[in-house]
Amino acid sequence: MNNSLVETNFNFPNQSKIYKGKVRDVYTLNNDLLVMVASDRISAFDVVMPKGIPYKGQILNQITTQMMSLTSDIVPNWLISSPDPNVLIGHLCEPFKVEMVIRGYLSGHAAREYKKGNRLLCGVKMSEGMIENDKFPEPIITPATKAEFGNHDEDISKEEIISRNIVSMEDYEALESYTKELFKKGSEIARERGLILVDTKYEFGKTKEGKIVLIDEIHTPDSSRYFYFNGYSERQKNKEPQKFLGEDKEWLITYCNKKLKDNHYDYFIFGHRHWPIEHQLQNESTYINLGDWIQHCTYAVFDGEKLELKKFED
User: Fold this and answer.
1) Total number of domains constituting the chain
2) Which CATH number goes with the domain that contains 183?
3) Rounded to an integer, what distance in angstroms lies between the CA atom of residue 299 and that of residue 256?
4) Tens-place pLDDT, residues 161-186
5) DSSP secondary structure code for residue 169 in this structure
6) Are 6 and 42 in contact (CB under 8 A)?
7) What is the pLDDT of residues 267-283, one digit of tens each?
């Protein structure tokens, strides 16, 4: 039995709008509230796979709910309540059209740019002599434009954001300050759990009253990269690959990358997006494990007769 939630089609009282993203379905009520349903959908290269990962949405939601609570003293957030493991209800906000990406280590996109010989990322200078996964002297903020569905986010500098009036200087400086404080807090939480918060992204919006608030998700494995703390220094000294939380998720990117390299582009264009069941089950276990490591999450299982809360070790 597949317990994954891949589609919703609610019709709430006073519902005025619905937006379906790659992972979340967002319902607007009374032009005042948002009901956000985190599905179990998973995507690669901006294409949603036909099968979901059971419990993925629940895990992401729980991490976000708990992290929003733990950081509310730093910045107010949009969240009001979570009446269901897959559902968040919050205030309708006008999102800033940038994602505040912050990096503590030379990993991922930053490492790929560095290997190309680039030492400037989003207007921020990166030091010479670094190797992949080295820690930056100080975390760097590398913003990205918030692309429409189907398009890719693009790197952009602070100067460009302000000069193009995407965000005012006053607001951007507030976002920058919040981003640094949130990353500091997230790093402390990660360290308590034997992890290193490598990089992450934050999204912000403004309420109708003009107050800046944190929106969307925070410190989830979909928006963040985590290393295991134990062994990091030794692996880095020996120039070995780092062990990161959720590395089993890489199967999807690797699998899809191979299809593209084999010129199977119709694999995506025409919807021939089948992937082996063992990979689906592997990723199910991975997400539950992620939730347990980061926030000791539970997850709800419905067997057709009863709803049961479980923990990963069950």
Assistant:
1) 1
2) 3.30.470.20
3) 28
4) 999 999 999 999 999 999 999 999 99
5) H
6) no
7) 443 344 444 444 444 45
